[in-house]
Design goal:
binds 6-O-phosphono-beta-D-glucopyranose, mainly beta, about 300 residues, eight-stranded antiparallel sheet
Length: about 300
Amino acid sequence: MFILGSPEELNNRLSMKDRLTFGKAGDGLVVAEIDNPHATASICLQGGHVTAWQPKSAAQPVVWLSKLAKFAPGKSIRGGAPVCWPWFGAHATEVGFPGHGYARTVPWAVTQAVSLADDATQITLELINSDQTRALWSHPCKLSLEVVVGRTLKLTLTTGNLGDDAFVISEALHTYLQIGDIAQTRVLGLEGCEFLDKTVAADGVRRRQEGPVTFTEETDRIYLNTTTDCVIEDTQLARRIRIAKSGSRSTVVWTPWTEKADKMGDFGPDGWRTMVCVESANALENAVTIPGHGSHSMSVEYSLEN
Ligand code: BG6
């Protein structure tokens, strides 16, 4: 049983002077604010959701957050790095279950916070299981997220199976990355990969990527059997964001484009133009079987290259 903790209690227990402080955002959600020699970052305890990361060397944030993002109990936050777990996309059989699982909309607890030798800040969070989560996922399990905020941002999502029986998860670190203009952006690293096209018009067709990914319309693709780094090449901001991962065999690339973003209602005016999601995932046939008393980790590291 975790004690959720008010910002005051967390500040007393875990604060590192100015480097880590806890406060409240929106409709009362608790947020950890990090400011160390390398970067600033924010993590919302609901969802274990990193909502900001900006290296001190960068003129602009690297992690994108919508100007209209809502910080409200039980609601997902538009932007940042939502944790999609224990299923990615729609649930396989239960139409009423939430898309992308429940991890991103339930409370998590901070279990540890330390300053590392290189002045990076490491925070570990754990999803709080409850009757609400067990109604959606009955397997005994422990989900934790380790966040290291430094010159790079590193996220490690670990699923522990606490029961005797194996279970299967799909998952994603659904990170929104800030770019200057989607039309002047390319994603490198997926050349030659097979992908499933999730846009309605494509109707689940599978194709192979030819050359870098470029954007001229809504793009929603699950690339399969790929473990390589991706690089977001951003001509307008004259920078590259490298995404290196391990324990992940799928990469999802998503941009809603104008019509879908307008329908979603929380992107803000033209917000969709300045973001792209490159998600480190295990989806479709890359779903992971975790044996009884076993565990699985998926890590991703974001770094900025000028
Ligand atoms: C992406 C999916 O990962 O997330 C898209 O591939 C989906 O199909 C998008 O639209 C956003 O999902 P949500 O639930 O955060 O609106």
